[in-house]
Amino acid sequence: MSIRNIVAFFAVAVSILSIPVLAFASGSGGERIDLTENWVGYASIVVFVLAYALVMSEEFIHLRKSKPVLLAAGIIWAMIALAYAAHGDKHTAEAAIRHNFLEFSELFFFLLVAMTYIASMQERLVFETLRVWLVKKGFSFRKIFWITGILAFFISPVADNLTTALLMCAVVMAVGGDNKKFIGIGCINIVVAANAGGAFSPFGDITTLMVWQKGIVAFQTFFHLFIPSVVSYVIPAAFMHFAIDDEQPEPSTEEIRMKRGGKRIMLLFLLTIITAVSFHQFLNLPPAIGMMTGLAYLKFMGFYLKITHGKIDEEDQEIVPTRRSGDEPLKETPFNIFNKVAQAEWDTLLFFYGVILCVGGLGLIGYLGMASEAMYVGMGPTTANIIVGFLSAIVDNIPVMFAVLTMHPDMSLGQWLLVTLTAGVGGSMLSVGSAAGVALMGASKGNYTFFGHLKWAPVIALGYGAAILTHLWVNAALFDVPTKPF
């Protein structure tokens, strides 16, 4: 990262502290102390900005993103507790951090189950089977470009945009071979498609999941964003289409076969999603409870696979499931559910903990009122929500959306859907604006880069603007629908 980029980041980060991205209502019943002009407030800002600078530099310094925010969270809350203790209040900070921790716990258990299912499907070669099938079909580069993009758009609402992007990147890499231009543009297309697809589903992105778990937007209401999401993807993809050579890639002889139980695990994942939605919609229970119930489905399936290991299954006429390009068959190992839990993205989960605690601490300090007044009152919710999308491209949409949610501006249903859309698809404008983009920069082995993505930022921004206009037009009636308090 150049000196100019570092300076630019710090300038942006400091400016963000004056708008609604770093605020959180503590939810505690104690008397809050305004620490915005106290040394604790200033020191907390510095700690958070330094931590997030290290997060954004992960690609270059190879420091896991969870480490700096975990440390920052502890330092910020220690300073807050000392400040309140100095005023004779030993309970407000405790109540506030417990509220923050509950917010994280619900998100943690929800994501842990989803990640365990994804790891299980990966181990059963579900995604590998799809990848090899696409490669062997002999499609042209342009057809692969559109197929991977469309699949990313429709898989990400279920499997999350990060997993989807990695899967489709593997397809593009396998087909592209030495064609760096195709791989680069194909990865950009996948990032845009995965982020767009994730915007209209509670399961597609962390931001939509947080909005749904708060109870602001009902599960089925997210699908009002389907058409705007399609627009945000199709417009940049149409421009990139003409940059792809209409040639035929070299055929592949690779063969692979899904392990037994793979299809049943996919069905159980679908049943788990239905369970989580039903618990939330009909029983008024947190979606995380439904997901943990769904984990039991997988554990029973794992038990069945374990006790039948080495036996011929009804679905498969042979136990050896996999063969690659003439090599010896791979030996199937017993299914172990706890190995799948261990394979969850623990760095990502701990990163969420650090971000939620940091943002919560900064909110308790008193930046919430300042931020709300600056944007959502001074500029209006539409302008503020559009700016949120641009901030998501720079800072990442997770802390941005969490801060907006916990600040709780008074907005209509249409406005909450707008900020969900902008936070979801806004991150596509830069490669560092979403988890999918950051992951593909590593997975593509240098074929997909920050500056390669930046060349297409204008057309991606065009799609971003068109999606907003589409939402304002198609869902105009929702801007008069109030939302219930949370």
Which secondary structure elements does this structure contain, and how are they paired or packed?
Elements: H1 3-16, H2 39-56, H3 58-61, H4 66-86, H5 92-123, H6 126-136, H7 141-159, H8 161-176, H9 180-198, H10 206-213, H11 226-241, H12 262-282, H13 287-307, H14 337-342, H15 346-377, H16 381-395, H17 397-407, H18 413-426, H19 435-443, H20 450-454, H21 457-474
Helix pairs in contact: 1-2, 2-4, 2-15, 4-5, 4-15, 5-12, 5-13, 5-15, 6-8, 7-8, 7-9, 7-11, 8-9, 8-19, 9-11, 10-17, 11-21, 12-13, 15-17, 16-17, 16-18, 17-18, 18-21
Number of β-strand runs? 0
Give the amount of beta strand, in percent. Answer: under 5%
Number of helices: 21
Output the helix-strand order.
HHHHHHHHHHHHHHHHHHHHH
Assign an overall shape: globular
What is the terminal separation in angstroms? 41 Å
Q: Supply Rg.
A: 23 Å
Structural class: mainly alpha
Whole-number mean pLDDT: 80
Helix content: 55-70%
Low-confidence stretches: 1-29, 313-327
How would a textbook summarize the main sheet? none
What does this 3D model show about the protein?
The two termini are 41 Å apart. This protein is globular. By secondary structure, it is mainly alpha-helical. The N terminus is likely disordered. It has a domain of 236 residues. The protein has 21 helices and no strands.
